[in-house]
Amino acid sequence: MSFSPSITTAQLTEDFPSEEARLEFWADAARELEWAVPFTKIHSATPVDPTNERGPDIRWYEDGKLNAAVNCADRHVAAGKGDKVALYFEGEPGDRRAVTYKDLAEEVAQAANALEELGIKHGDRVVIYLPVLVETVVITLACARIGAIHSLVFGGFSAEALRFRVEDTGAKLLVTTDGQFRRGKTVAVKSNADEAVSGENNIEHVLVIKRTGDEIPWTEGRDVWWDDVVVRQSTTHEAPAFDAENPLFIMYTSGTTGQPKGLVHTTGGYLTQASWSHRFLFGASEEDVHWCTADLAWVTAHTYEIYGPLSNGVTQVIYEGVPNAPHPGRHFEVIERYGVTTYYTAPTLVRSLMGWFPDGIPSEYDLSTIRLCGTVGEAVNPEAWTWLRKNVGRDTPAGVPMVDTWWQSETGSTVLSPRPTDTKFKPGCGSRALPGLAVDIVDDDAATVPANVQGHIVVTKTGPAMARTVWGNPRRYYTSYWEKYAEQGWFLAGDGARFDDDGDIWILGRLDDVINISGHRLSTIEIESALVSHPAVVEAGVCPTFDAKTGHAATAFVVPHDKSLIGTASPEVVASLLAHVSHEIGPIAKPRDIVFVPDVPKTRSGKIMRRLLTQLFEGSPLGDTTSLQNEPCIPEINEICRERVGA
Fold first, then answer.
1. Are 237 and 117 in contact (CB under 8 A)?
2. Res 6 pLDDT > 50
3. CA distances in angstroms from 612 to 161, 241, 271, 524, listed in the order given
4. Is residue 4 over pLDDT 60?
5. Are 282 and 288 in contact (CB under 8 A)?
6. Pick the CATH number of 67-322 from 3.40.50.12780, 1.10.3720.10, 3.30.2350.10, 3.40.140.10
7. What is the per-residue pLDDT for 159?
8. Residue 3: what pLDDT?
9. What pTM value is reported for the model?
């Protein structure tokens, strides 16, 4: 279709003839779950309240009752699928385990009994500080089974990051491990956990899994071993049913300023949209083996590695380690070993694979089972999109279907994505909203922007998985997401986007990742995409830095293929990159500075933390770095920047 600014939101998404039809769609999706008490009320909401600075009070299926853990394990056993593999676990050292749905149901029951023995009750908070292990999935579902609210924390986060989450949730229990395996070495975890709970908090017990066998500090009376308290429990547990709006988990997401926000997701609505969207995007056949490569503490893993696939009875892979240990082909070994059919990963990993395999994936790896790939985290560079589709999906002549998903911790499930049944894909394009949702791209006055003009992407019709509030801070829920378009009742995602001439949507990165150069608003991700398409570049992060003449300048941090360039200012390569950006976008987009670095700082979800790049280049105080997956790169980049300034 040709683009017109008058196109309605419904026409740009799935066109339901009425709001009643949209709600019935979500009612049908919810009925795919097992309800102890069926719902009769589909949806209601109290509008945004600017006077009292309150976001909407959103309710889905509010008079129904269910249990999330039963839906993810017990019901599949009852349906005669207890012998089906739920989880193929592969540890970084090479240890492996196949966990059936019967195994999973029994282990969750044991963990639920153990939680109750430790005094955990409905509504209590449990913080889970673990790597990707079977036990991580088990304890997460055990919390859901008894109605405790879980909050998973990445096992590589610092003690301070963990301390904040322990104290903010008021958790009574911390679940951790003696250590974890990373790049062939053991990394201490329990010492961080001890430091995190050393202050004023509500922690009564620390439940410890023995993973590495390393010697660890121990506090008698507080610390308990998993094998001592969980393994001896009964493999049966009577699961209560909870209100659909009962809180299920708290997911912390970092902002550009202030402390992380604890987003509260509830049971019935979240599980409905997680389950339905997993089926819609990835399928759920008996033959499928799904692999979402995210760490279990990230919202992507909650939705498409725990609750979505398990509620649909799918077999999936969980992998403990990093993708290049002991060699860069580890992921391809895993795909071949388990016959992975759907592979869902982050653009930053794809770019790393491109750097490790510049000539393509060696033919020795059998990737023939792959039928679909997907990306998540931030908008994927077209070059990385194309590489993933044609290299991992190489056994399909044109490459496999791609679900290039856009969503957030706040939305709980995918908002934008091409359909896996599409016949024509646009590399790096989020395409359009999924059924049952509606979005628009608007200006500051809430008017739909014309084609090829950047605006604010807003969700005008949210789904059941939408976060209900910020834990302990409802005002922040309002000011962060609802205040700007309170009159319209729209959720402000915080990302910039544009329509193309066909009405398809392109995500342009965070609204604070826009560089204004002499009045020209340029998206950092567009400049990054241009740089990454140059053969000398593995990855790039672009940030705004001060310029007395133009207001802002674009500064590019480039990870080169040639590691000898790191820390240098090679005139030949810089000139080639500048010429390339000028050709791809235009002279106005050329970075003023190009800095060759070993890595760019990224969150666990793969988002480049561009504000940190600005602060590092300008030498200003750094903000919070606790949500980084690669924090050691910060001092390296800082040293390169200081040497550059000195020169």
1. no
2. no
3. 17, 45, 35, 14
4. no
5. yes
6. 3.40.50.12780
7. 85
8. 33
9. 0.84
